[in-house]
Write a structure and sequence with these properties.
676 residues; Rossmann fold; 8-stranded mixed β-sheet; 24 helices
Length: 676
């Protein structure tokens, strides 16, 4: 802030300009968070959720319910980007542990070619074939070796059921980002949830989700269980806690081989969860799910008529009232099908976790529906294994296996397919069609094509050789867009529309803009949605890797809306205002810095006639960089779902006209300058 004030003193020699002079919107009260984005989309989310509930309650007959399940499941799979073809599992048992009342096998299988999954299979000592329960892990750093996951698996084995617990990407032996020292020791620099958010950026651009890979691992785990002679493939269950409860919810909704399920410490409602604790990690947020009506209760309803037990905790940070609301919704649908006994809820007087009361309840539930035994169970004290004892790989990480692929390798393979199939517009007619298609992809009218957005002038500050106007407009989503208009007394140069990913204040203080105003350029500096004054107070996510607006981004993402779309509309509206305010100067030069370059490219590509030139400084070179860079910095907000299926950022320069675009010192997705 001191650096900004110093620069401003140089710029405005006739009078000093304080930091307050650069603010347009009211300052938030001390201690109050900035929530413009969250507040703008809350009514849209609630409207969609209300519409969804009304549609659910209208379902009455088994035929209506079956048709609804078919359609919603199809939309769910579409938003995940679909699943690949089944390939050989190449499963190997790499070790065993023999205990008095169960046997443990260490298994490695390939859910995709050379994409290795590490798992432990717990088998009863009694004669098979046994029912089996798939146990996806929650967000434990040590994955399948986490004590409570071992305990539930041992409980199943002690009660006549096999249990198959596997590591998700980013946990246990499956970290996707490793650092090796000089002695070739590998360590994981990120904790589970942090790695999930880092690895969850690239698949958005590919039209997938990190959950796509998680779910396929689980489905292939079911394939493995069905391939074994000692497992009864017609009696399969699934349970997990927290992140494992999420995976159980997804799997039971999508795979009807699961006959009984129990998602733990996950089920609540989207309406409540969006507020507290907020959107989950990358794999918990499915594209457009709120818009087309996929709430937590729907995971249970999609599993009908199969048996589902919601496992919840009274003192969980996952709101318990949401669990009961989802249970009531699901119970009504199961009752309409005449099978109300197949859905239930257990609430333990505990905090978040797969605690002993929940393990007992889930074991009894699986025993009831997979073994047809309905009687109480108990959990006595027993020993569990160390991480090393359960390790499947020689060096503790699958990526150290010869030929192993990471999710990043899979992303790059997917991108290569898109690039080979991509057909970019060449003729002016094709370019026009491309622009229209881009605007209609979200099935909404693009904001810039709508009626005028009234601009409010708050204050005019007169100086000896220029004036500053503070103004703003509310965009199509009701988000205030603050602007500073610098008008020299003597205008001799084209108008400049200036946008900076770090906010307009950064732009006004730059030497480039100082010189422009002195040279007679009128300058309109704009804070696009979530920039500068409307930047959200960070919550739920690491600002370093996900950006300050990450939680709001995911709320929008689940509505099928991107910040790229919103900000592009903001930019086009501001450009129209500038041209209207300065009719004598038809030329507008667009200058964008850092993240704002992504929006400038889209705005100028969609309506190139609005801008005479486009200057991009320190911006992202390409979305391809995002896919090919393992650890990206602050790129989530720059993504659009599935965009790389059709185009990349350099392709937009072709739509604008290469002679109009100047690219200065581009940056990579790692936040570093690209070496020339």
């Amino acid at each position: 802030m001191n650096r900004i004030l110093l620069c401003l003193t140089c710029l405005f020699s006739s009078a000093s300009v304080s930091a307050e002079d650069l603010s347009v919107l009211p300052k938030p009260e001390p201690g109050k968070k900035v929530t413009y984005l969250q507040d703008a989309f809350r009514p849209l989310v609630h409207e969609a959720l209300d519409r969804r509930l009304k549609e659910r309650e209208a379902l009455q007959t088994p035929e209506q319910i079956a048709e609804w399940q078919r359609k919603l499941r199809g939309k769910f799979i579409q938003s995940l980007g679909g699943f690949p073809e089944r390939t050989p599992l190449n499963a190997n048992i790499v070790g065993t542990i023999d205990e008095p009342d169960y046997r443990l096998e260490k298994v490695i299988y390939e859910s995709r070619p050379q994409f290795y999954v590490t798992a432990n299979l717990y088998l009863p000592k009694t004669a098979g074939p046994h029912p089996a329960v798939l146990v996806p892990c929650g967000h434990s750093a040590n994955g399948k070796a986490y004590e409570s996951y071992q305990r539930i698996c041992i409980m199943f084995a002690k009660h006549g059921m096999a249990a198959f617990c596997y590591d998700p990407p980013g946990q246990g032996e499956r970290n996707q980002i490793l650092e090796q020292d000089d002695d070739h020791h590998a360590t994981a620099p990120f904790k589970a949830t942090a790695e999930h958010n880092v690895t969850g950026v690239a698949p958005v651009l590919l039209g997938e989700n990190l959950a796509t890979y998680f779910i396929w691992d689980g489905m292939r785990g079911l394939d493995y269980l069905q391939s074994r002679d000692d497992i009864d493939g017609d009696r399969l269950g699934c349970t997990g806690n927290s992140g494992g409860g999420m995976m159980t919810s997804y799997l039971m909704a999508l795979d009807d081989r699961i006959k009984a399920a129990s998602p733990g410490c996950f089920i609540t409602t989207t309406r409540i969860k969006n507020e507290r604790p907020g959107p989950g990690d990358a794999e918990q947020n499915i594209f457009a799910q709120t818009a087309y009506g996929l709430d937590h209760a729907d995971f249970i309803m999609l599993a009908a008529p199969r048996a589902v037990l919601i496992s919840s905790a009274t003192h969980d940070f996952v709101p318990i009232e949401g669990a009961w609301e989802s249970y009531r919704q699901a119970k009504r649908l199961y009752t309409k099908l005449g099978i109300s006994e197949r859905v239930s809820l257990v609430e333990a007087d505990e905090k978040h976790g797969f605690t002993k009361p929940l393990r007992i309840a889930v074991t009894q539930w699986m025993q009831r529906w997979l073994l047809d035994i309905d009687k109480p169970v108990t959990e006595h004290e027993f020993a569990v294994h160390t991480d090393a004892e359960l390790q499947c790989t020689p060096h503790g990480q699958v990526l150290l296996l010869e030929g192993a692929k990471s999710v990043f390798d899979l992303y790059r393979e997917k991108l290569a397919l898109f690039i080979n199939k991509r057909k970019l517009p060449q003729t002016e007619k094709e370019k026009a069609v491309f622009r229209v298609r881009w605007q209609l992809e979200g099935e909404r009218e693009f904001p810039s094509s709508r009626s005028e957005y009234p601009v409010t002038v708050y204050q005019t500050i007169d100086r000896s050789d220029y004036s500053i106007e503070k103004l703003s407009f509310n965009n199509a989503w009701g988000i205030p867009i603050p602007m500073l208009y610098f008008q020299p007394t003597k205008i001799t140069q084209p108008a400049i529309l200036y946008v900076n990913g770090e906010g307009k204040s950064e732009g006004v203080s730059s030497e480039e803009i100082q010189e422009s105003i002195r040279a007679g350029h009128p300058v309109l500096a704009v804070d696009l949605s979530g920039y500068g004054e409307t930047e959200s107070t960070p919550w739920r996510f690491s600002e370093t890797y996900s950006g300050p607006n990450a939680a709001a981004y995911y709320n929008m993402y689940m509505m099928g809306i991107s910040l790229v779309e919103i900000r592009t509309g903001d930019l086009l509206i501001a450009s129209r205002y500038l041209r209207k305010a300065m009719p004598e100067l038809s030329r507008v030069e667009l200058v964008a810095v850092k993240d704002a370059t992504v929006l400038a490219l889209h705005a100028a590509a969609l309506e190139p006639e609005l801008f005479s030139t486009v200057k991009l400084r320190n911006g992202l070179r390409s979305w391809r960089d995002v896919v090919e860079t393992e650890v990206t910095i602050d790129q989530l907000e720059n993504t659009m779902h599935g965009a790389l299926r059709s185009y990349d950022l350099p392709d937009l320069i072709q739509l604008i006209g290469a002679d109009k675009v100047t690219v200065i010192d581009p940056y990579g997705a790692d936040g570093k300058p690209i070496e020339k």
